[in-house]
Specification:
By secondary structure, the chain is of the alpha+beta class. The chain is about 15% helix and about 20% strand. It contains four helices and twelve strands. It has helices at about 5-25, 50-55, 85-90, 95-100, and strands at about 75, 115, 190, 200-205, 210, 215-225, 230-235, 240-250, 260, 265-270, 275-285, 285-290. The strands form two sheets. Strands 3, 4, 5, 6, 7, 8, 9, 10, 11 and 12 form a ten-stranded antiparallel beta sheet that branches. A hairpin with a 4-residue loop joins strand 7 (about 230-235) and strand 8. The longest helix is centred in the first third of the chain and has 23 residues, at about 5-25.
């Protein structure tokens, strides 16, 4: 048993411990030190807004001009690498007409996926069919003229492989555009029109012989950019007919020049051919047709 002094000492110690505990319970609570961001920058750990409000939602892509006409006859969807001149060549149109029909402010600014009208608009502004024409000269990677080769007689079909063929208009739509054609050269007929092998006439002659415009028209192509045709001239006579004159030695007209029927437009040659000859085509609404249906018999 503890003596009186021992009990007093224990009591005193317990009072001291109680006082310390009481003192601790009356202290104000201490705050935790602020969290420091040591590498993400000021405010990186601050409460962030929900994702939907902090990241702007991308607006839906703006439809490209003419997208509603994609796939319709008489319209062309721009592909990578296209230019208006190339599109004109592929659709037998003058690129300037395409600019006008589509109200393009800058002919050098067209977008992949954009849809362009490539036929003349009708009074109702709905394309019926593409007109036949070629563009002002530019590098040619595709053409609507098929490879020229020899042959015999028959009616016409289609365009060359890998070529966009124009759409044929309704029957009778172009009857007012009929043209009176003359022979473009006086030489011997070497090869007539053939559905599978030859899209026109091959006419023989000597180098330098005159090549004549088969009808009044306008030069829509004059150059050597179409493989298999050598020095080539294409005339547009109206919205229905064009004619092509290939393998020339010399070209005597320029693009956008107006010519008269019987006018000398080139000299016969053998450019890109196995002999001196003129390869001559008549195209109706972009499709090659048998010249014997349009030229007087010899």
């Amino acid at each position: 048993m503890l003596g009186m002094r021992g009990r007093m000492w224990v009591a005193t110690g317990m009072l001291a411990v109680a006082a310390v505990i009481a003192g601790c319970s009356t202290d104000k609570p201490r705050r935790a030190p602020p969290v420091e961001d040591r590498g993400l920058g000021a405010g990186a750990l601050a409460p962030s807004a929900p994702m939907a409000s902090s990241v702007a939602e991308a607006p839906p892509p703006k439809p490209l001009p003419g997208a509603e006409n994609a796939g319709r006859p008489g319209y062309y969807t721009v592909k990578p690498g296209d230019t208006l001149r190339k599109i004109g060549q592929e659709t037998n149109q003058n690129w300037r007409d395409i600019v006008r029909w589509n109200s393009l402010e800058n002919p050098d600014l067209i977008e992949v996926g954009q849809v362009l009208r490539v036929v003349p608009p009708t009074s109702s502004q709905v394309a019926q069919a593409p007109a036949a024409e070629k563009p002002s000269g530019a590098p040619v990677t595709g053409t609507s003229l098929p490879p020229a080769q020899p042959a015999s007689h028959t009616p016409s079909p289609g365009a060359a492989p890998g070529v966009v063929a124009p759409v044929t208009p309704p029957q009778g739509a172009a009857s007012e555009d009929e043209v009176a054609f003359i022979w473009p050269a006086s030489g011997t007929l070497l090869a007539a029109f053939d559905e599978a092998k030859n899209k026109g006439y091959d006419i023989g002659g000597k180098a330098g012989d005159p090549v004549l415009a088969a009808a009044d028209g306008r030069v829509v192509y004059a150059g050597a950019g179409l493989r298999g045709y050598g020095n080539l001239i294409i005339l547009k006579h109206n919205n229905t007919y064009l004619t092509a004159y290939a393998h020339n030695q010399t070209l005597l007209v320029k693009e956008d020049q107006s010519v008269r029927r019987g006018q000398k437009i080139a000299e016969m040659g053998s450019s890109d051919a196995d002999r001196v000859k003129l390869h001559f085509e008549i195209r109706r609404q972009g499709k090659p047709v048998d010249p014997s249906r349009y030229l007087a018999a010899r």
